[in-house]
Amino acid sequence: MDFSARARRLNLSVHLFSVDLNLLPQLLDTVMDGTQKIMFDRVETSNVMDTTGPSSIISTWGLRLNRKNPNAALLMYSMNYSRKVQGGSITSQPREKYSKMISELSSYLGVDKKGSKMPSIHSIMTDTEAFFDTRPAFMEYLRQQGVPEACREAKLRQRKVPRILPARIGVGLKDYDSPKITITLEEFYFIGQ
After folding, report:
1. Which of 38, 53, 54, 103 is the most buried (most CB within 10 A)?
2. Which of the 8 DSSP states describes residue 130?
3. Residue 92, phi then psi, degrees to nearest 5
């Protein structure tokens, strides 16, 4: 079922704010002035954790999650963590591992076959991410940032496996743990090659 069909069945209230993320809870308390605090089933903070750090968001917004909803979640995204943790980017991998990923991609694209059209170097470098699992480095980054401790203090559960995942061209969520691309070359071509 697509999102719009599911959304019609739910009682949704969407709030968008253009206020500093760490000041917003205080502003909400001021607006509510003595009445019950506004609680949220989902708080999506985009990539604010890149500037404020994930622990401060957890301690500020963890208290605002609706404890009556077991699926209430605080969603954070990082665009820059890979520069802050060892092994976070594909180019930081050992030469042998990186060469193996390039070789697998080249083979998949048919670069090793006679008469095949050579994809651009940019294309190969970009699509090599399809063979790289970023989760171990991301989990290490969260550990270094004190996320497990912040979750314990806020009485929240940290997901064991990140669900906001980097693009892996041709890899669906159910196949995300597979190191192989599972689409045809024709499908791959129409993605943007």
Report:
1. 54
2. G
3. -90, 0
- Residues of the chain short of pLDDT 70, as ranges, are 1, 34, 108-131, 163-193
Measured CA to CA in angstroms, residue 120 lies from 38, 110, 111, 113, 193 at distances of 51, 13, 11, 16, 9
- pLDDT tens sequence across 13-37: 888 888 888 889 888 888 877 677 8
In the block, residue with structure tokens 């193996």: 100
One-letter amino acid for residue 111 of the chain: V
Could you tell me the pTM of the whole model?
0.72
64-68 long-range contacts, CB within 8 A, separation 24+: 64/25, 64/37, 64/38, 64/39, 64/40, 65/39, 65/40, 65/41, 65/156, 66/39, 66/40, 66/41, 67/39
For the chain, what's the residue count? 193
* Residue 77: DSSP 8-state: -
Listing DSSP states for 1-40 in one string gives --HHHHHHHS--------S-TTTHHHHHHHHHTTSPPP-B
The pLDDT of residue 123:
65
As a whole number of angstroms, the distance between CA 38 and CA 25 comes to 9
CA–CA separation, 127 vs 193, rounded Å? 10
